[in-house]
Specification:
The complex is a heterodimer. By secondary structure, chain A is of the alpha+beta class. Among the domains of chain A are: 193 residues, no CATH class; 247 residues, no CATH class; 100 residues, no CATH class. Chain A has 19 helices and 24 strands. In chain A, strands 6, 7, 8, 9, 10 and 11 form a 6-stranded antiparallel beta sheet that branches. In chain A, a hairpin with a 4-residue loop joins strand 21 and strand 22. The relative contact order of chain A is 0.07. By secondary structure, chain B is α+β, with helices and mostly antiparallel strands. Chain B has one domain: OB fold (Dihydrolipoamide Acetyltransferase, E2P), CATH 2.40.50.140. Chain B contains 2 helices and 7 strands, in the order αβαββββββ. Chain B has a 5-stranded mixed barrel with strand order 2-3-4-6-5. The longest helix of chain B has 23 residues. Chain B starts with a helix and ends in a 5-residue tail after the last strand. Classes of the chains: A alpha+beta, B alpha+beta.
């Protein structure tokens, strides 16, 4: 640098403070880890005190980092790269939070903050477990804190990425001319938050999901603490409420992702087995398995090793999930992998914890209590154990298929992800779900150790009969043919009925202890709703605008794949049970809304207005044009519509082209003929040879002839057109007629007397204002959402009563 | 035989099944010249759009047919028919992955993945996926 530029108007103080807090948080975590580690091994209370102070310092520093980051985002200090990259001054205030966690640094910070929040609670509640549990927390915080350091050692090696980096120092910017201007700050504007993320789901989904991720650390830390301090079973009791709390939160986060995909993205469903979705689902599955094994162990000390494995696996899978989504390795396979490179550090993070738990398990394997005696087939714990194994296998299957890009990288193979991902995953996951639902249904009726078989069958009989009846009704009523799906209908109904029955008859409908039953009913409903809505989803947007398709390609020949309807402006077409009209397009902000009205035909053959949907296209500068769906919700079904194609004008957004006349075509007709044109049906009603000689100035030798043609447009409106031909001696005068509303010009070209027919020149308006739309009906999808809510309520209930019980 | 042994055997069997099915269901990335040898078999081809040739899409005629010329990694050109609407901003794509198969010497794609240069993210790309609709 020859001469340093003095920049004007930069706000460097908050960034410097932020950086200071990053260092304090990092050092605090190291100190806290070291002190709690010492405290665990020496039982020295002064180490413990030091650890507490260090962790509190770390936590306060982490909260201060968040405050600094919010401060610069809130004040639009675009001299910071993060602020420039993720926000703009025109961004509505309600999306400020979304900018915060849109970027990688922000999302690590969010994760770290949740650990701080949980850590502060644990500092007060862990009692004798404090030192080892907090040591593990601190160790994790060291790794997360290092992600924010942003220390560049050489071109190819750096530790973390700093959220307070300056725009003018960013590697992509240093050579750009604008930074030569000392007053650049006054000139720059942030590039803004990706409009796709500007909706309320982006405000609530990431924090919930990360809270869920953070909560997996608590049972993990307790389990490590258990082995570390050789209290191999005692850790389960304090960890149990946290585990089910975490299951509820993480489950909510995952389901919110599905709801977001369904409501705001045009995936055409709520679950697509997308790698990023899978990456968040898999830890939840192992979390559930681990939680249930913990229950088994609390009542009977069996399968302790499996409990450890699942509890460890859950947290490790959260790390793996972060690696998959954040390292960019999914690249070609996922629609929404966030390709930013920082894999090395995450691999070190993961390997450290894998080696740590592997070492602890192997070293202490002999000491972990095991039951030599086999469990009875008629015991609850046996089937809960089987259930956990099934969940483990299900998680393994999803993980293994999702990890194809990782397998390629590690083994140098060249596998591509399954062609039809949905049926690949379903072919395994449906059988697993059937077994899990059956286990959920009957396991509660068994007692720990051993049960009375007769009583067991007697208690189950009622719900079994009801579910069989329900299965028959659904199968016939909705015409299910696939035996695997029928199996799932039965299994999910059985799990709903049996748990309802257990709650009402065995637990006498009391809220206390109702948690598990309620959560299981919710799970059964979720599965049943998912099955009915996707198994019988129906695409209703077959192209009924037969009028747009050439005559040769009549209805039988329509491409069976054609699932998109062509809607010209003002046209009314039949779609499913509705008639729909594309009325207008409006641009509001970055979105173009297409107003589509829905009608039903009543008995008098008149259209009754039903409702209007506004599917939209977002003119997104970062992602290109993105289609956003619009859905009509009924109690028993949803009508989901989205635009699959529209010609979008880059400046005004809304197309308002004039309909122009297309090239004329010659059509041969005779009297009483019916011809389908592009946008109307033409009927040759008659031939008029008696033209008024005065109007047409006909002499006695002249011949005047006209065709009386009736046209019906797509709305059923009738028009009459009368093209005329006058022959004066050897000269022929065709008189063209035009109907502006119908968009049609007709002229007689030639009369063919020997065939008694005519050649007509037909010129039609080309419909330049149109949209192509897809519409899908999802039946009974509300059962799915109801199931989600009930499942979460059940989990919360069980956590609540478990905490109350343990406090007594 | 103890119950645990039965469980272990079943567990191992299912795991092997999972691994085999993933390998079986996974397709592979090939060039057009390999794909043409096995008509009717699905492949994934990586390549790029030939921007010099015309993209054919006439929604007035058939809203569900879009065709374009693609160059695979070896530089072979192939006309690709996609039975769906034309993906938004297809012209901007940098890299294209098509899932599909040869039928009557024509390549019919069931899915298109495209990478577009992001206008803002310097150097990075955005990925988008488009599916032809399944026959129900």
């Amino acid at each position: 640098m020859e001469n340093e530029i003095e920049y004007v108007g930069e706000h460097l103080i908050p960034g410097e403070i932020g950086n200071l807090f990053i260092v304090v948080a990092f050092v605090g975590a190291i100190l806290s880890f070291f002190s709690f580690f010492k405290a665990t091994n020496s039982n020295d209370s002064s180490w413990k005190k030091l650890g507490q102070y260090a962790f509190i310092t770390h936590g306060v520093a982490a909260i201060s980092i968040v405050a600094c980051l919010f401060y610069i985002i809130f004040n639009h200090y675009f001299e910071y790269y993060y602020v420039w990259q993720h926000s703009s001054s025109s961004l509505p205030l309600r999306y400020i939070f979304s900018c915060f966690w849109e970027g990688q640094e922000g999302s690590f910070l969010l994760w770290m903050i949740w650990h701080v929040v949980l850590g502060f609670i644990l500092l007060r509640t862990t009692g004798k477990w404090q030192a080892p549990v907090m040591a593990i927390f601190s160790l994790v915080q060291i790794f997360l804190g290092s992600m924010l350091l942003g220390i560049t050692i050489s071109d190819w090696f750096s530790i973390g990425s700093n959220p307070f980096g300056l725009l003018r120092e960013h590697p992509d910017m240093v050579n750009l001319p604008f930074i030569q201007n000392p007053e650049y700050v006054a000139l720059i504007e942030g590039r803004g938050l990706n409009p796709l993320l500007q909706n309320y789901w982006m405000t609530i989904h990431p924090p919930t999901l990360f809270f869920g991720f953070a909560s997996t650390l608590i049972p993990f830390a307790y389990a490590v603490a258990g082995i570390w301090t050789k209290q191999y079973q005692e850790w389960i009791k304090p960890a149990l409420p946290w585990t089910f709390f975490g299951i509820a939160i993480l489950g909510t986060g995952v389901l919110m992702g599905g709801a977001w995909a369904y409501e705001a993205l045009s995936f055409g469903g709520f679950w697509a087995w997308d790698p990023v979705e899978n990456a968040s689902l898999v830890p939840w599955i192992t979390f559930v398995a681990g939680g249930h094994l913990m229950l088994v162990n609390k009542n009977r000390n069996s399968s302790l090793v499996a409990t450890y494995i699942f509890t460890f696996l859950t947290f490790l899978l959260v790390l793996y999930s972060t690696y998959l989504t954040r390292s960019g390795i999914l690249g070609e396979t996922s629609v929404h992998s966030f390709a930013e490179g920082m894999p090395g550090q995450l691999i070190v993070f993961m390997s450290t914890f894998i080696l740590m738990v592997a070492y602890l398990l192997i070293k202490n394997y002999k000491n972990i209590p095991k039951i030599r005696q086999e469990e009875s087939l008629w015991s609850r714990e046996f089937w809960m154990f089987i259930g956990a194994l099934i969940l483990g296998i299900a998680a393994f299957q999803i993980s293994f298929s999702t990890s194809i890009p990782v397998t390629n990288k590690v083994f140098g193979t060249n596998m591509a992800p399954p062609e039809d991902a949905i049926s690949h995953y379903n072919s395994w996951q449906i059988p697993f779900t059937i077994i899990v639902c059956l286990l959920i249904a009957f396991a509660q009726f068994l007692k720990y150790k051993n049960s009375d078989k007769q009583k067991f069958f007697k208690q189950l009989a009622l719900s079994l009969i009801v579910s069989v009846a329900l299965t028959i009704v659904i199968t016939i009523g909705m015409n299910f043919k696939n035996s695997l799906l029928i199996g799932l209908i039965f299994a999910s109904s059985f799990s709903i009925m049996a748990n309802l029955d257990y709650w009402l008859r065995v637990l006498k409908g009391k809220l206390k202890n109702a948690g598990p039953s309620v959560a299981h009913v919710g799970f059964g409903l979720l599965i049943l709703g998912a099955l009915l809505s996707t198994g019988k989803k129906q695409i209703i947007s077959y192209n009924t605008s037969g009028i747009n398709i050439n005559l040769e390609k009549n209805e039988e020949n329509i491409d069976p794949n054609a699932q998109n309807i062509f809607l010209a402006k003002e046209d009314t077409l039949k779609m499913g049970e509705y008639y729909i009209t594309y009325k207008n397009a409006k641009k509001e902000g970055v979105n173009i809304y297409y107003e589509v009205e829905y009608f039903k035909l009543n008995q008098d053959l008149k259209f009754d207005y039903q409702f209007t949907l506004y599917p939209s296209i977002q003119t997104n500068e970062m992602m290109g044009n993105v289609s956003e769906p619009s859905t009509k919700h009924f109690w028993n079904r949803d009508i989901f519509t989205h635009i699959t194609y529209a010609e979008v004008d880059p400046t005004t957004g809304v197309e308002n082209k004039k309909d122009e006349y297309a090239e004329p075509e010659v059509v041969k007709v005779g009297a009483q003929d019916t011809v389908a044109l592009n946008s109307s049906i033409m009927y040759v009603k008659g031939i008029n040879k008696e033209l008024d000689p005065v109007i047409y100035r006909l002499d006695s030798n002249d011949i005047g002839i006209s065709l009386i043609i009736e046209c019906i447009n797509s709305k059923g409106k009738r028009f009459t057109l009368e093209p005329v031909m006058i022959i004066k001696g050897t000269q022929v005068f065709p008189i063209q007629v035009e109907d502006e509303e119908l968009g049609l010009k007709l002229a007689i070209k030639r009369i063919i007397p020997q065939e008694n027919s005519f050649e007509l020149i037909v010129t039609e308006k080309k419909r330049n204002n149109f949209i192509i739309m897809q519409a899908i009906v999802f039946p009974y999808i509300n059962i799915l959402w109801l199931g989600c809510i009930i499942m979460v309520i059940g989990s919360v209930l069980s956590v609540y009563y478990r905490i109350r019980k343990s406090n007594k | 035989m103890k119950k645990t042994h039965i469980i272990a055997i079943v567990l191992i069997a299912v795991s092997i099944g999972v691994i085999l099915s993933t390998i079986k269901d996974s397709s592979s990335f090939v060039s057009f010249s390999e794909a043409v040898e096995n008509p009717g078999v699905s492949y994934q081809v990586i390549g790029e759009l030939n921007k010099e040739k015309e993209l054919e899409y006439d929604p007035h005629e058939n809203a569900n047919l879009f065709s374009f010329y693609m160059l695979d990694a070896e530089g072979n050109e192939q006309k690709v028919y996609f039975h769906g609407t034309k993906p938004q901003d297809f012209e901007r794509s940098e890299q294209v992955v098509v899932h599909g198969k040869f039928e009557n010497n024509e390549f019919h794609a069931s899915k298109i993945l495209m990478k577009c240069p992001s206008k803002y993210n310097n150097g990075s790309t955005e990925l988008q996926e488009f599916n032809a609709e399944e026959v129900s």
